[in-house]
């Protein structure tokens, strides 16, 4: 007998497959955020890719993510970490841990794995400097040096996450 978490994950996976094969208005999000289970035998471990937002310092970047889903999903959030190093105030540079309220206290069962990953992508262009995991990046923004911050982000994007590497 499948658990509630397994049924929910199977439903999300099925919806993702339909979304990827259809040319719907939200299909472009699939190109910006792509996720799937590592194997069909284990729906509790997924991987994915988040691409940088055009026109910003993350443009041209492609970051691999790791998604671990608890047995209590969707009542409790997944753990999503960046595998590819990324410079961002709310993402720990070494561990890839993400500080985002929807992955912690603001999680509800209405969120899906895809919507959580889309929220992480949105965080790239709208950092929250009051709850940083990368204090150095946050301090640059606190000082108002957006040019310096953008240069630092572009440097690390080019070094670790270029699509054309």
TrEMBL record:
InterPro entries: Ub_conjugating_enzyme (IPR050113), UBC (IPR000608), UBQ-conjugating_enzyme/RWD (IPR016135)
Domain UBC core, first and last residues per copy: 4-162
Keyword annotations of the record: ATP-binding, Nucleotide-binding, Ubl conjugation pathway
GO molecular function: ATP binding
Pfam assignment, any one: UQ_con
Full protein name: UBC core domain-containing protein
Organism classification: Eukaryota, Fungi, Dikarya, Ascomycota, Saccharomycotina
């Amino acid at each position: 007998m499948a658990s509630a978490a397994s049924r929910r994950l199977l439903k999300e996976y099925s919806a993702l497959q339909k979304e990827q094969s259809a040319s719907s208005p939200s299909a472009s999000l699939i190109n910006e955020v792509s996720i799937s289970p590592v194997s069909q035998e284990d729906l509790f471990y997924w991987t994915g890719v988040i691409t940088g937002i055009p026109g910003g310092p993350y443009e041209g970047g492609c970051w691999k993510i790791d998604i671990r889903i608890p047995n209590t999903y969707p009542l409790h959030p997944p753990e999503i970490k960046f595998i590819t190093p990324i410079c961002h105030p709310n993402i720990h540079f070494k561990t890839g841990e993400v500080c985002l309220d929807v992955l912690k206290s603001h999680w509800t069962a209405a969120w899906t794995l895809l919507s959580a990953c889309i929220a992480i992508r949105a965080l790239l262009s709208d950092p929250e400097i009051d709850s940083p995991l990368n204090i150095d990046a946050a301090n640059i923004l606190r000082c108002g040096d957006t040019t310096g911050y953008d240069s630092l982000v572009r440097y690390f994007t080019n070094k670790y996450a270029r699509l054309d590497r």
